[in-house]
Amino acid sequence: MKAWEGVGEAYAASYASLCAGSHDEILRRLGTAHGRRVLDAGSGTGALAARLMDAGWSVTGCEPEATMRVVAARNHPQVSMVEGALPALPFEDAAFDAVTANFVLNHVSDPRAAAQEIARVAAPDAVMIATIWIVSPSWFWQRVCDRAGLVVSPTGRLAPEKDFERSSAGFGGMLSEGGWPAVDVAEFSWTWRPTTDELWRSAEGGVASAGAFYRSLETAERERFARAFDRLCEECSDDGRVALDHTAAVAGSRRG
Fold first, then answer.
1. Cβ neighbours of 157 (radius 10 Å)
2. Domain range for residue 60?
3. 11 within a domain of the structure (yes/no)
4. Which residues of the chain have pLDDT under 50?
5. What CATH number has the domain bearing residue 99?
6. H/E element holding 186?
7. CB environment 33-58: b (16+ within 10 A), e (fewer)
8. Partners of 147 in the beta sheet?
9. Radius of gyration of the chain from its Cα atoms, rounded to whole angstroms
10. What total number of domains does the chain contain?
11. pLDDT at position 2
């Protein structure tokens, strides 16, 4: 989680609204709450946890990054948020009737171990749901770098024995290897329409790989990056917003 250190406020002002694009699909797959216990693992700033609570779930959010928890406490004080990170959650076996992990397993150091840990804390007959990116915002930032003449060196890649193919089939196979039974994976797409200010806040604030790359640049390179960003936004924006198409894979499984 080092890449997300200190980015809570910037994430809340930018990518949080992007990641919310999966919330309706997650709620649909979970079914009726009836006050059952759900863990939102990698809860970030607590937006999904709050949606789950509004839907009638008894919610626990779990998030390792302190600045994310600060934002969650301010914006969603009704949500119980604890410190913890996959693949070592601070909960007993079979503690929850459902577990969600929204755009989390694409960031952990050992995805299969994380999947196993989710299964461990899920009760018999519990629903487990996770999402990853198939098409993420990285394509937009690559175009910015190309225009700025900046070469992005691959960083943060997992060792081959830990990684998995970032496709629906690859995601489902990894979860099966992590102990999830009868995994059902589907893709869904939506268009995120952030303002140009929200997009820039993510880069300047160090959010995700693009933000980490921007922060690694020298002053002159940052200026080139910013100019390329402005030019691309001028071409792509409509009334100050940029329409960005994204695709995610959502996987569901039921224990028992």
1. 8
2. 2-136+158-192+245-254
3. yes
4. 1
5. 3.40.50.150
6. strand 184-192
7. beebbbbbbbbbbbbbbbbbbeeebe
8. none
9. 18
10. 1
11. 53
